[in-house]
Design a protein that fits this description.
The protein has helices spanning 2-34, 56-70, 158-169, 175-184, 191-216, 269-275, 288-293, 305-313, 320-341, 349-381, 389-398, 401-404, 418-434, 440-458, 463-473; strands at residues 88-93, 104-117, 120-132, 221-233, 238-249, 257-263, 280-284, 299-303. The protein is an alpha/beta fold and 493 residues long. It is elongated, with a radius of gyration of 37 Å.
Length: 493
């Protein structure tokens, strides 16, 4: 019996040792899989001689200090501070009396946004009242549906975004000047923040720019041109020459719809892509790609007589042919002013077009015939050297004679491309102020915003009112209804 008890004790001791070993192995595996593998010894002092543990009261005090330190409240991250003593305007977002019947009011959610009204900044305080249904807790917190802002989570109101965009892209103020202007009003906003707002607004409004281009390319007559714009090259502090292409249409003597396209080069693929499905007539200078487009089926091209005139004017010669051609082209422009003045009469659009065409065929066609007769005779005489500017001016007209006559058969064409050049002028003014665009995203944003702003100006629409309203509505408008937000269709809500 004694032997059996001793044997059982030996087995129990062996099992205890095995459990201890397995427990150590398990702890090791856990540490290797989930714990810190660095071989740092953290000793509790139990193996050190003459080491006395602090009293429990002291340990509790230290733990409280540590907890307090780890839970210290972090300052909220903001890009700017509101102006001191800025007026605040409360906007309450609440359920209707019917919707909140039977519900229990539990408090408010508040958010503040920097806003702008002509002449001053202020703060909009949005108050959303919260409710719960005592009988249906599964519904959670109930609030009135709110509109999605232009920049979700931002502390900037759409009125302030519109003010920024108008200042930069309509009044051509660079961001560093705006930073200083805002600073004088007690509003400290870094230009990096202003740039971020502009870029995000441009991305948000891009679908409207795409729809604007689609509308322009559906018109029967288009004006197009391009201009340079410096693009900053990252890394070396230099700029490269990028391009801004312009497309204008909308009918009448001063077509209002304008679209700008930013590209980092002047490759012909850009206008070719835009005109690949186009059917109608277009105005431009004699850039090679436009001559290529002129050969597309269903397309009529009207080169610019103002460009042709400039080539004769710039030719440094006393030859009488120069003055003869300049006077005849000036006469063409005089007739055109009379032809488009017919629009002021009380006639239908069709009657105006017919009268314009008859006037051209009666007067302009004779002058055009005389111009080409004069230059052909001068060219055949052989007295002008090929390198002479006068010869180049003659060939500029002769090589494109059929196209220069297009306006004689199409009453909606003009004899120049000045419509495009007038709409390039704001870009030129802006370029002198902000000097360059900082990135391709910046170039695309510039193109989108200027497209909408310049179209507004042509339509006599206040760009500030338009952009503020559209920025507030665009995230809450379906893709199918975005067409209603274009400047020509816009109605302020």
């Amino acid at each position: 019996m004694v032997k059996i008890i001793e044997e059982q004790k030996r087995i129990i001791v062996g099992l205890q040792q095995e459990v201890k070993l397995l427990a150590e192995q398990l702890a090791y595996m856990k540490r290797m899989m989930f714990g810190v593998k660095k071989e740092t010894i953290i000793d509790d002092g139990s193996y050190l001689p003459n080491f006395e543990m602090p009293e429990e009261e002291m340990i509790e005090q230290e733990e409280k200090v540590l907890v307090k330190k780890s839970k210290s409240k972090r300052k909220p991250f903001t890009h700017f501070d509101f102006p001191k003593d800025a007026p605040r305007e409360k906007i309450i977002n609440d359920l209707s009396s019917e919707d909140k019947e039977g519900l229990k009011y539990i408090g408010n959610d508040e958010s503040e946004k920097l806003a702008y009204r002509p002449g001053s900044f202020f703060v909009k305080v949005y108050i959303t009242r919260k409710y719960v249904d005592p009988n249906h807790s599964e519904k959670g917190i109930i609030t009135k549906d709110s509109f999605s802002p232009a920049i979700p989570g931002s502390r900037v109101d759409e009125s302030m975004l519109a003010h920024l965009l108008v200042n930069k892209y309509c009044d051509h103020l660079p961001l560093y000047r705006l930073e200083g202007i805002y600073g004088r009003d007690g509003l400290s906003i870094k230009r990096q923040t202003l740039s971020s707002w502009a870029l995000r607004s441009g991305a948000l409004l891009k679908p409207l720019g795409d729809l604007l281009l689609k509308e322009i390319m559906s018109q029967k007559v288009i004006f197009t041109d391009d201009s340079t714009i410096p693009l900053q090259v990252k890394g070396n502090g230099k700029t490269k020459t990028a391009r801004m292409w312009i497309y204008v249409s909308g009918g009448g003597p001063s077509p209002p719809l304008v679209y700008y396209q930013f590209t980092d080069d002047r490759k012909k693929c850009h206008p070719l892509e835009k005109f690949k499905d186009y059917k109608g007539a277009f105005h431009s200078d004699a850039l090679a790609v436009y001559e290529e487009i002129a050969n597309f089926d269903g397309i009529q091209w009207q080169p610019c007589w103002a460009h042709a005139r400039r080539k004769f004017f710039d030719s440094e010669t006393s030859h009488p042919l120069k003055q003869i051609i300049l006077k005849k082209i000036d006469k063409l422009f005089s007739i055109e002013r009379d032809a488009w003045a017919i629009d002021t009469e009380d006639l239908s659009q069709r009657e105006k077009s017919n009268k314009r065409l008859k006037l051209r065929q009666k007067k302009s066609s004779i002058i055009v015939d005389e111009i080409f007769s004069e230059i052909k005779n001068a060219f055949r005489s052989g007295e002008h050297m090929p390198q002479e500017n006068l010869t180049k001016a003659i060939l500029y007209l002769m090589k494109r004679e059929n196209h220069f006559r297009s306006f004689l058969d199409n009453s909606e064409l003009r004899i120049d491309n000045n419509v495009s050049e007038r709409n390039i002028r704001p870009l030129t003014i802006g370029r002198k102020n902000w000097l360059f665009v900082g990135s391709e995203d910046g170039g695309n944003t510039t193109a989108t915003i200027i497209s909408l702003v310049q179209t507004c100006k042509n339509l006599k629409i206040n760009p500030q009112e338009y952009l503020e309203d559209v920025l507030r509505r665009i995230n809450n408008t379906s893709k199918e209804d975005l067409f209603s937000l274009l400047p020509q269709n816009w109605e302020k809500v």
